[in-house]
Model the fold of this input.
Amino acid sequence: MSNIPADLKYVTSHEWIKLQADGTLLIGITDHAQGALGDLVFVDVPKVGRVLVAHEACAVVESVKAASDVYAPLAGEVIAVNEALAGAPELLNSDPYGAGWMWQLRPANPADIDTLLDAAGYAKVLETA
Amino acid sequence: MTLSDNRVDRMLKQTALHSEHQRLGARLVDFAGWDMPIQYQSQLDEHHAVRSGAGMFDVAHMSAVDLHGARTREFLRQLLANDVAKLKIPGKALYTCMLREDGGILDDLIVYFLSDDWFRLVVNAGTTDKDLAWIKAKATDYGVSVSYRDDLGILAVQGPQARAIVARHLPGKLAEASLALVAFQAAHEGELFVGRTGYTGEDGFELILPHAELVALWTQLLADGVKPCGLGARDTLRLEAGMNLYGLDMDESVHPLEAGLGWTVAWAPEDRDFIGRKAIEAYRAASPKVFVGLLLEGRGVMRSHMKVRFADAGAGETTSGGFAPTMKQSIALARVDAAHAGACEVEIRGQWVAARIVKAPFVRNGKVLI
Done:
């Protein structure tokens, strides 16, 4: 059974979103996603300053088996990325909700956050998958 | 992201170890119609275990085929592109291609010489049915009997410690004989067969034995510290070892000289008329396409069927690629124009990334060779 922290938000495409005190968001992939992908060996995150449209493919994670797109859960500007992932993609496996965060976003419209799934909603997505 | 588990709703064949794979928490995938473990916990850990210690692979989806008859050697000298006349000591083996008349590769296989009227082939899972039909059709002229040994399974135990550990679990005389084997040689006692072969670039054994005994041996090896490894690790290990995978690096549309397998074709004696010889003679001096190793210099991971281009002349395609865990960078095998010139690039997800042609193998016996 995969770990789904109660204090995060989620989307059905297996990204998690953490609301920071300053209104910005940290984004990564869920424990379920990393488990399904297997050992991750390469990560490509969006460039700082890039303006993302909701649901666009903006990052790539590659496991030993295959490459997968990671989608922007909501619109906004990338204000920081996790540089450590370039040299240590395994952080996505070992600590997907912590050291494995991928990028930080300033949301274009903070109200979009209300459209995201909570932990119970995401758990339901996994059950019915 | 989009996650798929590669599973389809059809009846898959199971090896004798199937319930053991489930008990160990393996992720199972459809491989050539068999429900096989792609990994247990971590494919990378499994890969490293084979490079540094010992790992074992259930490869019972592959098939042993026994050929009997007084004219078996003569038959195989016609059937196979390598020459079994090289096999003079019972137990010795050869790696070879089996070709169509037009030179296309039907399969790659290992052939063991066991006695004057008994040879054993080990063939790929996905090609077993067509191989059997082909071999049986050709064998009748020679009075050779062909038996598919589905009563036997195959277990590969690989890594620098593999032989010593396996020997502890073999009967005394066979243990001694197994440890005395040179590479590409087998010993057997009854239906218990031990070959010093493999598909990882490491030392080790491939054992062919009845299913119940295979399960018992697996259990003993597990208790003795041998790590169960899935087909995922088997693929990264063979890729680092520069070994071809049938169905990816070659198939019936490709001849051995454009698959890097010219060394397995025995041209001498000139009058040995093996199947496919006439067709591939034309490429003997020079093949228009050649098979090369690639090392990625830029960022990303090369996979199968990516385009390759050269700055001045020539192009090609990767046939298999991936992340090499021992080297911590991406490598690939590729088929490219022999007349290529200039800097090499590979198209990865819409972007051209710098790569370098290198000579495979990339890794052998735990050491990076590039």
